[in-house]
């Protein structure tokens, strides 16, 4: 009997020893990232819309412009277009393509490719299409508005908008130019190559990297584009390994089996911040989203501005940032985030129970009232909701927290069926217009409309600022709008979150690569010691 | 009843079960108070875009029509197109199922190799140290949550000891063998690539042990109780009275009879390993079908949910059918 047991044990042990791992070190010219890739839908610039997918897609495809932080402000800078002229009161843009612009298969980037890319985006009509429509290019008018002057010159006839709006929109991942020849050679059933480009770029992109393959739930492989107009990047290969569990990501980066853990939990990040470890470090940058509480301006007590203001004074913003976000957020009570054109630091609200009570008393609610606070059941949102609930209770407002799946919550919000909602806003393009419209202009039927804050002065200012061609006058308009909005609006903005990564300490330039406030990520800035 | 008649009857019953599964999954998926289009486009998408996508996906049709569309596709072998991946669901399943199947096979092998001997030792040495150990091992196996066991073993064998890799099916720099079956262990052997085989084996050990632990515990418990039952039978006493050696009595007389209920448990366990691998797949970054279905659920990707669930139900039913047929072949009384 003992002999048999020994045989079993030996068999198992030998199997284990045979299989035990021999780990290969990551080469100096390769970058391995552990990330949860389940959010990805497509890596086609005409389809992808989510932040992480857009960051990968931008590595594969260059646009006419590129978004880059300049003196801390996100700014559209030349990319495939080395320069442009703005004519006819901001309604005609003439883009001059670089002579050395080539796709990863060596084909030159021509005006035909640019025109094809924009017309393809509009014809496919997926999520990002509305951004081109926003600047006046539509499926119906695209033959008259997207024009070729010569092989290296493209003309766009747009709506009369502030240039920063047009150039910022063109700098998004959806503005990536595709190789017409390659795409049309792989078209199936009139899909403009949508199925082909879903998981690879295969010579169709002119970005710093070629998207070699995306094996779903497994990995994405990028390889340096030797024809890249900006010069071949230092990192020759990027391997994005699908690791859905944050703890596994954290362990992998600590062991050195990956260079970057793309999304660890706030607890893990806080642990590393508070007790630094050898070999790894934490990188943080402000994110491109913000968290808000919206009060339905046409519902009961919130019809009175003083009640809205009482809520703003009741909330303990610092406690939310410190205890729920573990410090991974910055206080920003305005709708323009840090890092955006027009941002001004203005945080007038601090928890002040007495002031809140006084305002409620003046409004005729000395005993408070009952209200439903709607949110979706992520851990952070629920923790925030509970904290806000207790803050409101201190001033006499009895908030009942109702949670529901995000899609259901937003459906209710779209129907203006909320009393009070705790939610977030992801920004589509890095211009204040992308925020002024939803938060201040009810006429575009976005957040201000949903929360029934029908303020014509705010809407007029938002519209005027969006049309202003002069940057200085535009800044003034946004300053006026923000000062008015923070005083009058039905929103309490809580914070701007921070994005964070855990990286190996031999990476150089990661902070610079990530400095695009998550709306853009520049892999070309990264190298290794 | 003849064996052939029995099989035909079971196949017919299987079809009814699968239809029932389709109805239940369809109704439950639609009963979730959430909007799949909203889940995909996000809460901030313009309402026109939401309506357009709903029309494009056929979600504006009456529920009954949507169900009929789905069922008529199933009959033609078409499970629809995934809303998320924009690819035929059947193609997605073909991509992800081999990883789950391979994991389930190795986990089942581990659970049988460990569970059966543990159950035997435990029964033969009843109330002794080895029995107590086996019982504690079994109780822990059935009661410890998979994600907890998974993270614990990951920290120990990967992070602390560095003996086994932490994530994925193969190493990043391993060249994959040509795809034949999709089972990497088998494909690497077929290609004669022992380096890839070793790498794939090292990657599968931890997730398979985690996945197989609770199955090991179940098999050990059933094996123990079945063995104890058999050891109390008259024919065992008679065998002992005849002077047959202890080992012969245990392994030749008792074990063969005690294994019958264990075969059923192994069959059922294999089915549950196939459909229950999602947490293990998440912890170890294993690109399997479980994660595909759960991701589809989170996005309310109806075609993927329906197709994936129906596929798992088919596999589960087939495994049960095979177990029933083996049983019926062994014991004609089962054919009634």
Structure in words:
The complex is a heterodimer of chains A (529) and B (336). Chain A is of the alpha+beta class and 529 residues long. In chain A, the strands form 4 sheets. In chain A, strands 1, 8, 9, 10, 11, 12, 13, 14, 15, 16, 17 and 18 form a 12-stranded mixed β-sheet that branches. In chain A, strand 4 and strand 5 form a beta hairpin. The longest helix of chain A has 18 residues. The mean pLDDT of chain A is 93. Chain B is mostly helical. Chain B contains 14 helices and no strands. Chain B is globular. At the A-B interface, helix 1, strand 10, helix 9, helix 15 and strand 17 of A face helix 2, helix 3, helix 5, helix 7 and helix 9 of B.
Q: Nearest-angstrom radius of gyration of chain B?
A: 24 Å
- Uncertain parts of chain A: none
End-to-end separation of chain A in angstroms reads 57 Å
Q: If helices are DSSP runs of H or I spanning 4 or more residues, what is the number of helices of chain A?
A: 20
Topology, number of strands of chain A = 20
Q: How much strand content do the residues of chain B show?
A: under 5%
Order of helices and strands of chain B: HHHHHHHHHHHHHH
| Radius of gyration of CA atoms of chain A, rounded to a whole number | 26 Å
